[in-house]
Amino acid sequence: REKELEAREEEAKLKEEELKAEQQRQAKRREEMTLKKNLEKQMIAKKEQERQQQEEERYREQMMVDAAMRKIQEEDMMEVEHRKEVERLIEEKRREQEERRKAEEREWEEWKELDKIRAAIIEEEKKRLLEAHRPYLGPFTPHRHLQGRGNPSDASP
After folding, report:
1. Cα–Cα distance between 145 and 148 in angstroms, integer?
2. Per the domain annotation, does 108 fall within a domain?
3. 147 against 3, higher pLDDT
4. Region Disordered: start and end of each range (predicted)?
5. By CB neighbour count within 10 A (0-12 exposed, 13-18 middle, 19+ buried), where does 127 fall?
6. Contact, 155 vs 141, CB < 8 A?
7. Which of 156, 111, 120, 151 is nearest to 136 (CA)?
């Protein structure tokens, strides 16, 4: 009976040791699982942080591209406005030159007309004076000025 009791105690001791070993294995497995879950969480958090950083970097880059595009558009608009202003100034200068040319042409035509009138007045005055002084000029009267006014040989001294 004592042997039986010892055997049972031995068996109980073995079972208890097996139970402790099993509990330790389970505790170790739980600890490994917890470590694994924590590691996975850290990896997920790190990936999420990297994703957010990449997204922020893409956002920054996009904002820089947008800013550069806006600047280019503004510069293009300024260039277009500058070209329009240059074209307007060129056109204005052309109009002014054309107006000046026309004014000079009108002035020239007026001057020519006045010159014709002056020449006609002078010619008429010459003819009148020659006609008035014909008797005193005699044979020295220029014939070309008295055309149509009689014969130059009719002139008396």
Report:
1. 9
2. yes
3. 3
4. 1-35, 136-157
5. middle
6. yes
7. 156
- Put residue 138 in one of left, alpha, beta given phi > 0 → left and psi -120 to 50 → alpha: left
- N- to C-terminal Cα distance for the chain? 199
Rounded Cα distance, 132 and 28, in Å = 151
- Three-state SS string over 54-123 comes to HHHHHHHHHHHHHHHHHHHHHHHHHHHHHHHHHHHHHHHHHHHHHHHHHHHHHHHHHHHHHHHHHHHHHH
Q: 61 in a domain, yes or no?
A: yes
Give 104-119 pLDDT, tens digit per residue.
999 999 999 999 999 9
Average pLDDT over residues 73-87: 96
Overall domain count for the chain: 1
151 occurs within a structural domain: no
The answer as to whether 146 is a domain residue is no
- Domain holding 82, by residue range, is 2-141
Indicate whether 153 pLDDT > 60: no
